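User: C-alpha coordinates for Chaperone protein HtpG, please.
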Amino acid sequence: MQETGSISIHTENIFPIIKKFLYSDHEIFLRELVSNAVDATQKLKSLAQLGEFKGDLGELKVRVTVDKEARKITISDRGLGMTGEEIKKYINQIAFSGATEFVEKYKDKDAAAKDQIIGQFGLGFYSAFMVAEQVEIWSQSYREGTTAAHWTCDGSTEFTLEDAEKAERGTDVVLHVAADSDEFLEEARLRTILTKYCKFLPIEIEFEGQVINQTQPIWTKQPAELTDEDYTKFYQELYPFSEPPLFWIHLNVDYPFNLTGILYFPKVKDEMQFQRNKIQLYSRQVFITDEVKDVVPEFLMLLHGVIDSPDIPLNVSRSFLQADSSVKKINTYITKKVADKLNELFKKDRAGYEEKWSDIGLFVKYGMLSDEKFYDKAKDFVLLQNAAGKYFTLTEYQEHVQVNQKDKNDQTVILYSTDPEAQHSFVVAATDRGYDVLKLDAVLDPHFIGQLEQKLEKTTFKRVDADTVGKLIEKDETTESVLSDDDKTRLQELFTKSINNEHMHVQVDALSPQDAPVVITLPEFMRRMKDMQRVGGGGGMAMFGSMPDSYTVSVNANHPVAQRVLNAEDEAGQKLARQAFDLALLAQNMLKGEALTAFVKRSADLLAAE
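Assistant: Done. Predicted C-alpha coordinates:
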Protein backbone atom coordinates (compact mmCIF):
# COMPACT_ATOMS: atom_id res chain seq x y z
CA MET A 1 0.00 0.00 0.00
CA GLN A 2 1.21 3.48 -0.84
CA GLU A 3 -0.74 6.64 -1.10
CA THR A 4 -0.41 10.35 -0.98
CA GLY A 5 -3.02 12.84 0.10
CA SER A 6 -3.87 16.06 1.88
CA ILE A 7 -4.18 16.47 5.64
CA SER A 8 -7.80 17.21 6.51
CA ILE A 9 -7.87 20.82 7.63
CA HIS A 10 -10.03 23.81 6.87
CA THR A 11 -7.35 26.25 5.80
CA GLU A 12 -4.04 26.10 3.97
CA ASN A 13 -2.61 28.45 6.59
CA ILE A 14 -2.95 26.13 9.58
CA PHE A 15 0.70 25.04 9.61
CA PRO A 16 2.19 28.54 9.81
CA ILE A 17 -0.21 29.19 12.69
CA ILE A 18 0.86 26.00 14.47
CA LYS A 19 4.53 26.68 13.88
CA LYS A 20 4.59 30.32 14.90
CA PHE A 21 1.63 31.18 17.09
CA LEU A 22 -0.14 28.18 18.60
CA TYR A 23 2.80 27.24 20.81
CA SER A 24 4.47 30.15 22.52
CA ASP A 25 7.65 28.26 23.37
CA HIS A 26 9.27 26.04 20.74
CA GLU A 27 10.95 23.76 23.25
CA ILE A 28 7.62 22.21 24.22
CA PHE A 29 7.64 20.11 21.03
CA LEU A 30 9.63 17.56 23.00
CA ARG A 31 7.17 17.59 25.89
CA GLU A 32 4.28 16.96 23.50
CA LEU A 33 5.93 14.14 21.57
CA VAL A 34 7.22 12.38 24.69
CA SER A 35 3.77 12.78 26.28
CA ASN A 36 2.18 11.16 23.22
CA ALA A 37 4.62 8.25 23.52
CA VAL A 38 3.76 7.88 27.21
CA ASP A 39 0.06 7.94 26.35
CA ALA A 40 0.51 5.13 23.85
CA THR A 41 2.38 3.11 26.46
CA GLN A 42 -0.23 3.76 29.15
CA LYS A 43 -3.00 2.73 26.79
CA LEU A 44 -1.29 -0.60 26.11
CA LYS A 45 -0.86 -1.22 29.85
CA SER A 46 -4.56 -0.49 30.37
CA LEU A 47 -5.55 -2.93 27.63
CA ALA A 48 -3.31 -5.59 29.18
CA GLN A 49 -4.98 -5.04 32.56
CA LEU A 50 -8.39 -5.39 30.89
CA GLY A 51 -7.31 -8.61 29.19
CA GLU A 52 -7.65 -7.14 25.71
CA PHE A 53 -3.91 -7.43 25.07
CA LYS A 54 -2.44 -10.81 25.93
CA GLY A 55 1.01 -10.41 24.40
CA ASP A 56 4.30 -9.75 26.15
CA LEU A 57 4.51 -6.15 27.30
CA GLY A 58 8.31 -6.29 27.55
CA GLU A 59 10.28 -3.19 28.52
CA LEU A 60 8.01 -0.16 28.22
CA LYS A 61 10.51 2.67 28.04
CA VAL A 62 10.24 5.76 25.89
CA ARG A 63 13.57 6.50 24.23
CA VAL A 64 14.80 9.84 22.95
CA THR A 65 17.91 9.97 20.76
CA VAL A 66 19.67 12.64 18.75
CA ASP A 67 21.97 12.32 15.72
CA LYS A 68 23.61 15.68 15.23
CA GLU A 69 25.33 14.80 11.96
CA ALA A 70 22.16 13.41 10.39
CA ARG A 71 20.15 16.29 11.99
CA LYS A 72 17.62 13.85 13.47
CA ILE A 73 15.76 13.60 16.76
CA THR A 74 13.89 10.33 17.35
CA ILE A 75 11.22 9.59 19.98
CA SER A 76 10.49 5.87 20.24
CA ASP A 77 7.93 3.93 22.30
CA ARG A 78 6.71 0.35 22.59
CA GLY A 79 3.10 1.27 23.14
CA LEU A 80 -0.02 0.64 21.08
CA GLY A 81 1.43 1.54 17.74
CA MET A 82 -0.79 2.48 14.77
CA THR A 83 -1.93 0.97 11.51
CA GLY A 84 -1.95 3.04 8.34
CA GLU A 85 -5.66 3.63 8.77
CA GLU A 86 -5.16 4.85 12.34
CA ILE A 87 -2.43 7.24 11.21
CA LYS A 88 -4.82 8.65 8.65
CA LYS A 89 -7.48 9.01 11.35
CA TYR A 90 -5.40 10.39 14.23
CA ILE A 91 -2.61 12.27 12.46
CA ASN A 92 -4.14 13.52 9.24
CA GLN A 93 -7.33 14.80 10.83
CA ILE A 94 -6.00 17.66 12.94
CA ALA A 95 -7.62 18.07 16.38
CA PHE A 96 -9.12 14.56 16.42
CA SER A 97 -7.88 13.43 19.81
CA GLY A 98 -6.95 9.78 20.11
CA ALA A 99 -6.75 10.08 23.87
CA THR A 100 -10.30 11.43 24.04
CA GLU A 101 -11.66 8.57 21.93
CA PHE A 102 -9.79 5.96 23.95
CA VAL A 103 -11.08 7.30 27.26
CA GLU A 104 -14.64 7.43 25.93
CA LYS A 105 -14.44 3.84 24.70
CA TYR A 106 -13.06 2.38 27.92
CA LYS A 107 -14.44 4.75 30.57
CA ASP A 108 -16.91 2.16 31.89
CA LYS A 109 -14.38 -0.66 31.91
CA ASP A 110 -11.48 0.88 33.73
CA ALA A 111 -11.86 4.07 35.73
CA ALA A 112 -8.07 4.34 36.08
CA ALA A 113 -7.61 4.54 32.32
CA LYS A 114 -8.88 8.09 32.13
CA ASP A 115 -6.37 9.30 34.71
CA GLN A 116 -3.48 7.63 32.90
CA ILE A 117 -3.93 9.34 29.55
CA ILE A 118 -2.15 12.64 29.12
CA GLY A 119 -3.13 13.73 25.59
CA GLN A 120 -6.14 15.99 25.31
CA PHE A 121 -6.06 18.08 22.19
CA GLY A 122 -4.95 16.09 19.15
CA LEU A 123 -2.67 18.97 18.17
CA GLY A 124 0.39 18.10 20.25
CA PHE A 125 2.00 16.06 17.49
CA TYR A 126 2.10 19.05 15.15
CA SER A 127 4.31 21.00 17.53
CA ALA A 128 7.08 18.93 15.88
CA PHE A 129 6.89 21.24 12.86
CA MET A 130 8.06 24.19 14.96
CA VAL A 131 11.57 22.73 14.80
CA ALA A 132 11.45 20.16 11.96
CA GLU A 133 11.39 20.63 8.20
CA GLN A 134 10.20 17.04 7.79
CA VAL A 135 8.62 14.51 10.17
CA GLU A 136 8.40 10.75 9.75
CA ILE A 137 6.29 8.21 11.63
CA TRP A 138 7.24 4.53 11.66
CA SER A 139 4.61 2.50 13.50
CA GLN A 140 3.65 -1.11 14.14
CA SER A 141 0.28 -1.78 15.80
CA TYR A 142 -0.07 -4.15 18.77
CA ARG A 143 -2.85 -5.93 16.88
CA GLU A 144 -1.85 -9.22 15.36
CA GLY A 145 -1.84 -9.54 11.57
CA THR A 146 -1.39 -5.80 10.92
CA THR A 147 1.21 -4.20 8.68
CA ALA A 148 3.61 -1.51 9.79
CA ALA A 149 3.15 1.94 8.32
CA HIS A 150 5.46 4.79 7.33
CA TRP A 151 4.10 8.38 7.19
CA THR A 152 6.04 11.40 5.94
CA CYS A 153 5.18 15.10 5.85
CA ASP A 154 7.36 18.12 5.03
CA GLY A 155 5.31 20.70 6.92
CA SER A 156 2.94 21.40 4.08
CA THR A 157 -0.56 19.92 3.95
CA GLU A 158 0.73 17.05 1.77
CA PHE A 159 1.70 13.65 3.22
CA THR A 160 2.90 10.23 2.08
CA LEU A 161 1.71 7.01 3.72
CA GLU A 162 3.02 3.56 2.78
CA ASP A 163 3.46 0.03 4.10
CA ALA A 164 6.72 -0.58 5.89
CA GLU A 165 8.82 -3.08 7.82
CA LYS A 166 9.20 -2.58 11.57
CA ALA A 167 10.50 -5.29 13.86
CA GLU A 168 8.96 -4.13 17.16
CA ARG A 169 5.54 -2.97 18.28
CA GLY A 170 5.25 0.78 18.87
CA THR A 171 6.02 4.06 17.18
CA ASP A 172 9.15 6.00 16.17
CA VAL A 173 8.70 9.70 15.43
CA VAL A 174 11.69 11.05 13.50
CA LEU A 175 12.25 14.80 13.26
CA HIS A 176 14.50 16.17 10.53
CA VAL A 177 15.57 19.35 12.27
CA ALA A 178 15.26 22.60 10.33
CA ALA A 179 18.22 24.92 9.74
CA ASP A 180 16.88 27.56 12.16
CA SER A 181 16.61 25.07 15.04
CA ASP A 182 20.21 23.92 15.46
CA GLU A 183 19.98 24.41 19.24
CA PHE A 184 17.75 21.33 19.49
CA LEU A 185 20.49 19.11 18.07
CA GLU A 186 22.61 19.75 21.15
CA GLU A 187 22.46 16.93 23.66
CA ALA A 188 22.70 19.31 26.63
CA ARG A 189 19.75 21.37 25.36
CA LEU A 190 17.54 18.31 24.92
CA ARG A 191 18.50 16.98 28.33
CA THR A 192 17.51 20.30 29.91
CA ILE A 193 14.10 20.24 28.20
CA LEU A 194 13.46 16.62 29.18
CA THR A 195 14.44 17.32 32.77
CA LYS A 196 12.16 20.35 32.91
CA TYR A 197 9.02 18.78 31.46
CA CYS A 198 9.37 15.04 31.80
CA LYS A 199 11.23 14.24 35.01
CA PHE A 200 8.13 12.89 36.74
CA LEU A 201 6.36 11.12 33.87
CA PRO A 202 4.87 7.73 34.83
CA ILE A 203 6.81 5.77 32.17
CA GLU A 204 10.62 5.64 32.13
CA ILE A 205 12.15 8.14 29.70
CA GLU A 206 15.62 7.16 28.47
CA PHE A 207 17.87 9.74 26.85
CA GLU A 208 21.23 8.72 25.45
CA GLY A 209 21.31 5.59 27.62
CA GLN A 210 20.18 7.24 30.88
CA VAL A 211 16.74 7.29 32.53
CA ILE A 212 15.99 10.92 33.31
CA ASN A 213 12.74 10.65 35.30
CA GLN A 214 11.15 9.38 38.51
CA THR A 215 8.01 7.46 37.57
CA GLN A 216 6.49 7.66 41.07
CA PRO A 217 7.13 11.09 42.60
CA ILE A 218 6.09 11.34 46.23
CA TRP A 219 2.94 13.34 45.55
CA THR A 220 1.49 10.25 43.84
CA LYS A 221 1.86 8.27 47.08
CA GLN A 222 -0.18 8.25 50.26
CA PRO A 223 1.11 10.34 53.20
CA ALA A 224 1.19 7.19 55.36
CA GLU A 225 3.84 5.76 53.03
CA LEU A 226 6.17 8.74 53.47
CA THR A 227 8.54 9.98 56.15
CA ASP A 228 9.63 13.51 56.99
CA GLU A 229 12.93 12.66 55.32
CA ASP A 230 11.09 11.80 52.09
CA TYR A 231 9.39 15.19 52.06
CA THR A 232 12.56 17.19 52.81
CA LYS A 233 14.58 15.17 50.28
CA PHE A 234 12.01 15.90 47.57
CA TYR A 235 12.09 19.59 48.49
CA GLN A 236 15.85 19.63 48.03
CA GLU A 237 15.41 18.00 44.62
CA LEU A 238 13.00 20.74 43.58
CA TYR A 239 15.03 23.59 45.11
CA PRO A 240 18.65 22.40 45.47
CA PHE A 241 20.09 25.47 47.18
CA SER A 242 17.24 26.26 49.57
CA GLU A 243 17.10 25.84 53.33
CA PRO A 244 14.84 23.01 54.57
CA PRO A 245 11.16 24.00 54.63
CA LEU A 246 9.30 24.84 57.83
CA PHE A 247 6.57 22.27 57.16
CA TRP A 248 4.40 21.04 54.31
CA ILE A 249 0.87 20.11 53.28
CA HIS A 250 0.14 16.95 51.29
CA LEU A 251 -2.85 17.51 48.98
CA ASN A 252 -4.88 14.46 47.96
CA VAL A 253 -8.49 14.75 46.85
CA ASP A 254 -10.51 12.88 44.24
CA TYR A 255 -13.94 14.51 44.62
CA PRO A 256 -15.41 16.82 43.38
CA PHE A 257 -12.17 17.23 41.43
CA ASN A 258 -8.85 15.42 41.21
CA LEU A 259 -5.89 17.08 42.87
CA THR A 260 -2.63 15.83 44.34
CA GLY A 261 0.49 17.68 45.35
CA ILE A 262 2.69 18.96 48.13
CA LEU A 263 2.92 22.58 49.24
CA TYR A 264 5.93 23.64 51.32
CA PHE A 265 6.21 26.64 53.63
CA PRO A 266 9.71 28.05 53.00
CA LYS A 267 11.78 30.20 55.30
CA VAL A 268 11.35 33.81 54.17
CA LYS A 269 14.61 35.62 54.69
CA ASP A 270 13.75 39.02 53.27
CA GLU A 271 10.09 39.97 53.13
CA MET A 272 10.64 42.52 50.38
CA GLN A 273 12.54 40.06 48.18
CA PHE A 274 10.33 36.98 48.39
CA GLN A 275 10.12 34.95 45.21
CA ARG A 276 6.93 33.92 43.51
CA ASN A 277 6.39 31.31 40.81
CA LYS A 278 7.91 28.56 42.93
CA ILE A 279 4.91 26.24 42.67
CA GLN A 280 5.04 23.87 39.71
CA LEU A 281 1.81 22.83 37.99
CA TYR A 282 1.57 19.34 36.48
CA SER A 283 -1.17 17.53 34.62
CA ARG A 284 -0.86 13.76 35.12
CA GLN A 285 2.82 14.19 35.96
CA VAL A 286 3.60 16.33 32.89
CA PHE A 287 5.05 19.72 33.81
CA ILE A 288 2.84 22.53 32.52
CA THR A 289 3.89 25.82 34.06
CA ASP A 290 5.10 27.57 37.21
CA GLU A 291 2.61 30.41 36.77
CA VAL A 292 -0.26 29.23 38.95
CA LYS A 293 -1.91 32.50 39.96
CA ASP A 294 -5.39 31.29 38.99
CA VAL A 295 -5.10 27.93 40.75
CA VAL A 296 -3.37 29.04 43.93
CA PRO A 297 -4.66 32.00 45.99
CA GLU A 298 -2.57 35.13 45.59
CA PHE A 299 -1.33 35.08 49.18
CA LEU A 300 -0.07 31.51 48.82
CA MET A 301 2.04 32.28 45.76
CA LEU A 302 4.92 32.54 48.22
CA LEU A 303 4.72 28.81 48.90
CA HIS A 304 6.85 26.23 47.11
CA GLY A 305 5.96 22.79 45.81
CA VAL A 306 3.94 20.85 43.26
CA ILE A 307 0.27 20.67 42.25
CA ASP A 308 -0.96 17.99 39.88
CA SER A 309 -4.50 17.96 38.53
CA PRO A 310 -6.08 16.61 35.34
CA ASP A 311 -9.11 18.81 36.02
CA ILE A 312 -7.40 22.12 35.40
CA PRO A 313 -8.44 23.21 31.89
CA LEU A 314 -5.61 24.27 29.59
CA ASN A 315 -5.60 25.76 26.15
CA VAL A 316 -4.23 23.73 23.25
CA SER A 317 -0.61 24.61 23.99
CA ARG A 318 -1.05 23.45 27.61
CA SER A 319 0.78 26.62 28.62
CA PHE A 320 -1.98 28.84 29.92
CA LEU A 321 -4.72 28.27 32.44
CA GLN A 322 -8.33 29.01 31.65
CA ALA A 323 -10.26 30.06 34.76
CA ASP A 324 -13.46 28.11 35.29
CA SER A 325 -15.44 26.54 38.11
CA SER A 326 -12.91 23.72 38.60
CA VAL A 327 -10.08 26.20 39.05
CA LYS A 328 -12.13 28.20 41.55
CA LYS A 329 -12.99 25.06 43.53
CA ILE A 330 -9.35 24.03 43.63
CA ASN A 331 -8.36 27.53 44.73
CA THR A 332 -10.90 27.40 47.58
CA TYR A 333 -9.80 23.90 48.58
CA ILE A 334 -6.13 24.90 48.80
CA THR A 335 -7.03 27.91 50.96
CA LYS A 336 -8.99 25.69 53.33
CA LYS A 337 -6.23 23.07 53.54
CA VAL A 338 -3.62 25.69 54.39
CA ALA A 339 -5.86 27.25 57.06
CA ASP A 340 -6.60 23.83 58.57
CA LYS A 341 -2.90 22.94 58.63
CA LEU A 342 -1.91 26.18 60.35
CA ASN A 343 -4.69 25.79 62.91
CA GLU A 344 -3.60 22.21 63.57
CA LEU A 345 0.03 23.29 64.11
CA PHE A 346 -1.05 26.08 66.44
CA LYS A 347 -3.22 23.83 68.60
CA LYS A 348 -0.88 20.84 68.58
CA ASP A 349 2.38 22.64 69.35
CA ARG A 350 1.96 26.30 70.22
CA ALA A 351 5.59 26.72 71.30
CA GLY A 352 6.82 25.35 67.98
CA TYR A 353 4.31 27.51 66.13
CA GLU A 354 5.58 30.61 67.94
CA GLU A 355 9.16 29.73 66.99
CA LYS A 356 8.14 29.63 63.32
CA TRP A 357 5.99 32.75 63.48
CA SER A 358 8.60 35.08 61.99
CA ASP A 359 8.30 33.02 58.79
CA ILE A 360 4.64 31.99 59.03
CA GLY A 361 3.39 35.47 59.90
CA LEU A 362 3.87 36.87 56.41
CA PHE A 363 1.65 34.17 54.87
CA VAL A 364 -1.04 34.49 57.52
CA LYS A 365 -1.29 38.30 57.40
CA TYR A 366 -1.16 38.34 53.59
CA GLY A 367 -3.98 35.80 53.55
CA MET A 368 -6.09 37.72 56.04
CA LEU A 369 -5.71 40.90 54.00
CA SER A 370 -6.56 39.31 50.66
CA ASP A 371 -9.15 36.65 51.46
CA GLU A 372 -12.15 37.23 53.73
CA LYS A 373 -12.77 33.52 54.29
CA PHE A 374 -9.16 33.00 55.26
CA TYR A 375 -9.42 35.91 57.70
CA ASP A 376 -12.36 34.23 59.42
CA LYS A 377 -10.26 31.12 60.00
CA ALA A 378 -6.93 32.80 60.68
CA LYS A 379 -8.18 35.20 63.35
CA ASP A 380 -7.91 32.28 65.78
CA PHE A 381 -4.25 31.50 65.03
CA VAL A 382 -2.72 34.83 63.98
CA LEU A 383 -0.22 35.96 66.62
CA LEU A 384 0.74 39.36 68.00
CA GLN A 385 4.13 39.80 69.66
CA ASN A 386 4.77 42.54 72.19
CA ALA A 387 7.99 44.47 72.65
CA ALA A 388 8.99 42.09 75.44
CA GLY A 389 8.79 39.12 73.05
CA LYS A 390 5.60 37.51 74.36
CA TYR A 391 3.00 36.15 71.90
CA PHE A 392 -0.77 36.56 72.08
CA THR A 393 -3.74 35.61 69.93
CA LEU A 394 -6.10 38.47 69.04
CA THR A 395 -8.54 37.43 71.77
CA GLU A 396 -5.80 36.98 74.34
CA TYR A 397 -4.35 40.41 73.62
CA GLN A 398 -7.68 42.19 73.80
CA GLU A 399 -8.23 40.65 77.22
CA HIS A 400 -4.65 41.55 78.23
CA VAL A 401 -5.02 45.30 77.59
CA GLN A 402 -8.73 46.02 77.96
CA VAL A 403 -8.57 47.08 81.61
CA ASN A 404 -5.62 49.47 81.47
CA GLN A 405 -5.76 50.69 77.87
CA LYS A 406 -9.31 51.94 77.52
CA ASP A 407 -9.64 55.66 76.93
CA LYS A 408 -12.33 58.00 78.22
CA ASN A 409 -14.54 57.08 75.22
CA ASP A 410 -14.39 53.36 76.11
CA GLN A 411 -12.14 52.68 73.12
CA THR A 412 -9.38 50.09 73.55
CA VAL A 413 -6.12 51.69 72.42
CA ILE A 414 -3.46 49.26 71.21
CA LEU A 415 0.01 50.76 71.25
CA TYR A 416 2.63 49.48 68.85
CA SER A 417 6.23 50.06 67.83
CA THR A 418 7.72 49.60 64.38
CA ASP A 419 11.24 49.53 65.81
CA PRO A 420 11.49 48.90 69.58
CA GLU A 421 15.20 49.76 69.58
CA ALA A 422 14.88 53.09 67.77
CA GLN A 423 11.70 53.96 69.73
CA HIS A 424 13.03 52.62 73.01
CA SER A 425 12.43 55.77 75.10
CA PHE A 426 8.79 55.88 73.99
CA VAL A 427 8.31 52.16 74.70
CA VAL A 428 9.78 52.64 78.19
CA ALA A 429 7.57 55.68 78.85
CA ALA A 430 4.50 53.63 77.91
CA THR A 431 5.45 50.54 79.89
CA ASP A 432 6.23 52.73 82.92
CA ARG A 433 2.58 53.77 82.76
CA GLY A 434 1.58 50.11 82.84
CA TYR A 435 0.76 49.96 79.13
CA ASP A 436 1.72 47.11 76.82
CA VAL A 437 3.36 47.79 73.45
CA LEU A 438 3.17 45.50 70.42
CA LYS A 439 5.99 45.02 67.94
CA LEU A 440 4.51 45.50 64.45
CA ASP A 441 7.54 45.85 62.22
CA ALA A 442 6.70 43.57 59.26
CA VAL A 443 6.25 44.86 55.72
CA LEU A 444 2.49 44.20 55.69
CA ASP A 445 1.78 45.54 59.18
CA PRO A 446 0.57 49.03 58.15
CA HIS A 447 -2.21 47.35 56.13
CA PHE A 448 -2.75 44.71 58.81
CA ILE A 449 -3.27 47.39 61.45
CA GLY A 450 -5.89 49.07 59.27
CA GLN A 451 -7.70 45.76 58.82
CA LEU A 452 -7.77 45.01 62.54
CA GLU A 453 -9.19 48.44 63.29
CA GLN A 454 -12.04 47.66 60.91
CA LYS A 455 -12.63 44.18 62.32
CA LEU A 456 -12.14 44.65 66.07
CA GLU A 457 -14.95 46.41 67.86
CA LYS A 458 -14.15 49.75 69.56
CA THR A 459 -10.41 49.33 69.01
CA THR A 460 -7.82 51.75 67.65
CA PHE A 461 -4.06 51.48 67.13
CA LYS A 462 -1.50 54.17 67.90
CA ARG A 463 2.21 54.05 67.36
CA VAL A 464 3.94 54.55 70.64
CA ASP A 465 5.73 57.70 69.44
CA ALA A 466 2.65 59.24 67.80
CA ASP A 467 1.97 61.49 70.81
CA THR A 468 3.08 62.18 74.34
CA VAL A 469 2.40 59.20 76.57
CA GLY A 470 -0.36 61.03 78.44
CA LYS A 471 -2.24 61.71 75.20
CA LEU A 472 -1.82 58.30 73.60
CA ILE A 473 -4.60 56.97 75.80
CA GLU A 474 -6.65 59.90 77.00
CA LYS A 475 -8.25 59.41 80.38
CA ASP A 476 -10.70 61.58 82.29
CA GLU A 477 -8.02 62.76 84.71
CA THR A 478 -5.91 65.76 83.71
CA THR A 479 -2.53 67.11 84.80
CA GLU A 480 -2.40 70.78 85.83
CA SER A 481 0.33 73.05 84.52
CA VAL A 482 2.61 74.81 87.02
CA LEU A 483 3.08 77.65 84.51
CA SER A 484 0.87 80.66 84.01
CA ASP A 485 -0.66 81.33 80.63
CA ASP A 486 1.87 84.11 80.02
CA ASP A 487 4.76 81.78 80.86
CA LYS A 488 3.40 79.14 78.52
CA THR A 489 3.14 81.67 75.69
CA ARG A 490 6.69 82.91 76.28
CA LEU A 491 8.02 79.33 76.50
CA GLN A 492 6.36 78.49 73.18
CA GLU A 493 7.89 81.57 71.54
CA LEU A 494 11.39 80.74 72.84
CA PHE A 495 11.26 77.20 71.51
CA THR A 496 9.77 78.26 68.18
CA LYS A 497 12.51 80.85 67.68
CA SER A 498 15.24 78.43 68.72
CA ILE A 499 14.02 75.61 66.47
CA ASN A 500 13.30 77.88 63.48
CA ASN A 501 11.62 75.17 61.37
CA GLU A 502 8.19 75.63 59.76
CA HIS A 503 7.54 71.86 59.88
CA MET A 504 7.98 71.77 63.68
CA HIS A 505 4.86 73.00 65.47
CA VAL A 506 5.51 73.85 69.12
CA GLN A 507 2.90 73.43 71.84
CA VAL A 508 3.24 73.55 75.62
CA ASP A 509 1.58 70.66 77.44
CA ALA A 510 1.06 69.87 81.10
CA LEU A 511 2.77 66.49 81.38
CA SER A 512 4.17 64.56 84.30
CA PRO A 513 7.46 65.93 85.69
CA GLN A 514 8.86 62.42 85.11
CA ASP A 515 8.17 62.65 81.37
CA ALA A 516 10.78 63.99 78.94
CA PRO A 517 11.23 67.79 78.73
CA VAL A 518 10.45 67.77 74.99
CA VAL A 519 8.75 65.11 72.87
CA ILE A 520 8.61 65.15 69.06
CA THR A 521 5.79 63.23 67.46
CA LEU A 522 4.26 62.68 64.04
CA PRO A 523 0.47 62.37 64.26
CA GLU A 524 -0.77 58.78 63.88
CA PHE A 525 -2.85 59.58 60.81
CA MET A 526 0.08 61.07 58.88
CA ARG A 527 2.49 58.36 60.05
CA ARG A 528 0.06 55.59 59.05
CA MET A 529 -0.41 56.98 55.57
CA LYS A 530 3.32 57.28 55.06
CA ASP A 531 3.93 53.73 56.28
CA MET A 532 1.28 52.40 53.90
CA GLN A 533 2.71 54.41 51.02
CA ARG A 534 6.16 52.93 51.61
CA VAL A 535 4.89 49.36 51.26
CA GLY A 536 2.43 50.20 48.50
CA GLY A 537 -1.24 51.03 48.85
CA GLY A 538 -3.06 53.58 50.91
CA GLY A 539 -5.71 54.19 48.28
CA GLY A 540 -6.77 57.81 48.04
CA MET A 541 -4.46 58.61 50.96
CA ALA A 542 -1.35 57.84 48.87
CA MET A 543 -0.74 61.57 48.44
CA PHE A 544 0.27 61.79 52.11
CA GLY A 545 3.27 59.58 51.40
CA SER A 546 4.90 62.37 49.38
CA MET A 547 3.93 65.29 51.62
CA PRO A 548 6.60 66.88 53.84
CA ASP A 549 6.57 65.69 57.43
CA SER A 550 4.77 67.96 59.88
CA TYR A 551 5.78 67.24 63.48
CA THR A 552 4.37 68.26 66.83
CA VAL A 553 6.90 69.46 69.41
CA SER A 554 5.41 69.03 72.88
CA VAL A 555 7.24 71.06 75.54
CA ASN A 556 6.59 69.70 79.04
CA ALA A 557 5.46 72.66 81.15
CA ASN A 558 5.97 70.70 84.37
CA HIS A 559 9.55 69.61 83.71
CA PRO A 560 12.36 71.54 85.50
CA VAL A 561 13.93 72.34 82.12
CA ALA A 562 10.93 74.51 81.21
CA GLN A 563 11.54 76.69 84.27
CA ARG A 564 15.28 76.91 83.49
CA VAL A 565 14.56 78.10 79.96
CA LEU A 566 12.19 80.76 81.26
CA ASN A 567 14.62 81.93 83.97
CA ALA A 568 17.62 82.21 81.67
CA GLU A 569 18.63 85.23 79.62
CA ASP A 570 17.04 85.28 76.15
CA GLU A 571 20.09 83.91 74.29
CA ALA A 572 20.91 81.36 77.00
CA GLY A 573 17.24 80.34 77.14
CA GLN A 574 17.20 79.71 73.41
CA LYS A 575 20.38 77.66 73.74
CA LEU A 576 18.80 75.50 76.47
CA ALA A 577 15.63 75.17 74.42
CA ARG A 578 17.64 74.02 71.40
CA GLN A 579 19.48 71.49 73.56
CA ALA A 580 16.21 70.05 74.87
CA PHE A 581 14.81 69.95 71.33
CA ASP A 582 17.90 68.15 70.00
CA LEU A 583 17.57 65.58 72.78
CA ALA A 584 14.05 64.94 71.55
CA LEU A 585 15.35 64.62 67.97
CA LEU A 586 17.96 62.17 69.21
CA ALA A 587 15.23 60.06 70.85
CA GLN A 588 13.49 59.82 67.46
CA ASN A 589 16.74 59.04 65.62
CA MET A 590 16.26 62.29 63.71
CA LEU A 591 19.43 64.14 64.78
CA LYS A 592 22.05 63.84 62.04
CA GLY A 593 24.81 65.61 60.17
CA GLU A 594 25.59 69.20 61.04
CA ALA A 595 22.84 69.34 63.68
CA LEU A 596 24.34 66.33 65.47
CA THR A 597 27.80 67.89 65.42
CA ALA A 598 26.43 71.13 66.87
CA PHE A 599 24.56 69.19 69.58
CA VAL A 600 27.73 67.36 70.65
CA LYS A 601 29.71 70.63 70.84
CA ARG A 602 26.91 72.39 72.73
CA SER A 603 26.71 69.48 75.19
CA ALA A 604 30.43 69.75 75.87
CA ASP A 605 30.12 73.51 76.46
CA LEU A 606 27.22 73.00 78.87
CA LEU A 607 29.15 70.36 80.79
CA ALA A 608 32.19 72.63 81.02
CA ALA A 609 30.02 75.47 82.32
CA GLU A 610 28.68 73.44 85.24
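User: Anything notable?

Assistant: Residues 383-472 form a domain with the Rossmann fold fold (CATH 3.40.50.11260).
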